[in-house]
């Protein structure tokens, strides 16, 4: 079962609330009798136990009568929510998420986006009560920090995908603990807009560090060394402290790498030359957009690089003319070139 809650639900709820209020005023019926049989039927079908259905039906004689005609084969068989997304929800806090943690032990995927009042407290409950978690995404949640990440590593041994974006309380140490505890199963990491400096990860297929402005060559080079045999995608867009030193590490081990984004980083013409001469690399997508230290001297290397690429992004280079782009297209007509 998949559950997603957003502002749209509030609008729908308000719409039906107004409709029921009008019906109540017009008919002067008790509010519990407003719901039609079809709606009550669906509610009863989805209550998890016979005891809960019986207690709920005691609200009125009509409800009891309706419950008595529901056949046991019509009761929905559900093991609870497995995939939960809360997007831009300002009214759901720790109490609500903790209730989900205690009632949905089979939860596997949790996606939180702009949930300002959810804190580490309820994430700790998720970690302790939902051991089957395989995917965790936290984006722009200002009150979620390090303690919940540490707990995820301790209690969720099957965690494969971690996405953390724009959450200021998340730091280096607990990230390191999380990744250390899950390093045997973790395959994909996406970190964006975090204030982190050091990170060591192993056995990864995809790494996204875009916008992590404090990441340096030391951290990225460590990731490259640990994942040379598995890494297929590396994105360091906007990591200004990543330089040519990282590109040199690619030549030693990352022969599986298909996608590389070093846009707005600190690489230079020398780094572009290194990529162009890397015969063991089999890149398919390469993004070099907006690198301030790359000059017109790299144009010959672009001509070499484009031969085997499916996509090349060289936007925001003032020295590249339409003639140069035409030459790149002529060399490899099947390549998508952004300039």
TrEMBL record:
InterPro entries: F-box-like_dom_sf (IPR036047), F-box_dom (IPR001810), FBXL15_LRR (IPR057207), Leu-rich_rpt (IPR001611), Leu-rich_rpt_Cys-con_subtyp (IPR006553), LRR_dom_sf (IPR032675)
SUPFAM superfamilies, per database record: F-box domain, RNI-like
GO biological process: SCF-dependent proteasomal ubiquitin-dependent protein catabolic process
Domain F-box/LRR-repeat protein 15-like leucin rich repeat span(s) in chain numbering: 185-327
Domain (F-box) ranges: 33-66
GO cellular component term of the entry, any: SCF ubiquitin ligase complex
A Pfam family the protein falls into: F-box
Highest taxon of source: Eukaryota
Protein name: Uncharacterized protein
Higher taxonomy: Eukaryota, Viridiplantae, Streptophyta, Embryophyta, Tracheophyta
């Amino acid at each position: 079962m998949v559950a997603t809650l957003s502002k749209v639900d509030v609008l729908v709820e308000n719409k039906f609330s107004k409709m029921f209020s009008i019906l109540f005023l017009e008919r002067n019926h008790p509010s519990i009798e407003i719901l039609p049989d079809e709606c009550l039927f669906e509610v009863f079908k989805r209550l998890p136990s016979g005891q809960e259905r019986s207690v709920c039906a005691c609200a009125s004689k009509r409800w009891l009568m309706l419950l008595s005609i529901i056949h046991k084969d019509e009761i929905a068989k559900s093991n609870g929510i497995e995939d939960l997304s809360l997007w831009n929800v300002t009214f759901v806090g720790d109490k609500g998420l903790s209730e989900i943690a205690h009632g949905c032990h089979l939860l596997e995927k949790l996606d939180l986006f702009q949930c300002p009042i959810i804190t580490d407290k309820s994430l700790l409950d998720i970690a302790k009560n939902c051991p089957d978690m395989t995917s965790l995404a936290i984006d722009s949640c200002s009150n979620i920090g390090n303690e919940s990440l540490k707990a995820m590593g301790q209690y969720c041994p099957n965690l494969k995908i971690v996405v953390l974006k724009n959450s200021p309380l998340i730091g280096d140490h607990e990230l390191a603990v999380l990744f250390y505890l899950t390093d045997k199963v973790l395959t994909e990491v996406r970190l964006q807009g975090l204030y982190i400096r050091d990170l060591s990860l192993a056995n990864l297929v995809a790494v996204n560090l875009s916008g992590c402005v404090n990441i340096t060559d030391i951290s990225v080079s460590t990731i490259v060394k640990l994942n040379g045999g598995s890494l297929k995608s590396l994105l360091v867009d906007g990591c200004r402290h990543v330089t040519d030193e990282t590109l040199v590490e690619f030549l030693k081990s990352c022969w599986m790498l298909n996608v590389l984004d070093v846009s707005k980083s600190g690489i230079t013409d020398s780094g572009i030359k290194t990529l162009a001469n890397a015969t063991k690399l089999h890149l398919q997508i390469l993004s070099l957009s907006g690198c301030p230290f790359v000059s017109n001297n790299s144009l010959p290397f672009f001509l070499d690089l484009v031969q085997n690429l499916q996509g090349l992004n060289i936007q925001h280079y003032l020295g590249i003319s339409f003639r140069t782009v035409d030459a790149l297209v002529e060399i490899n007509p099947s390549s998508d070139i952004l300039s």
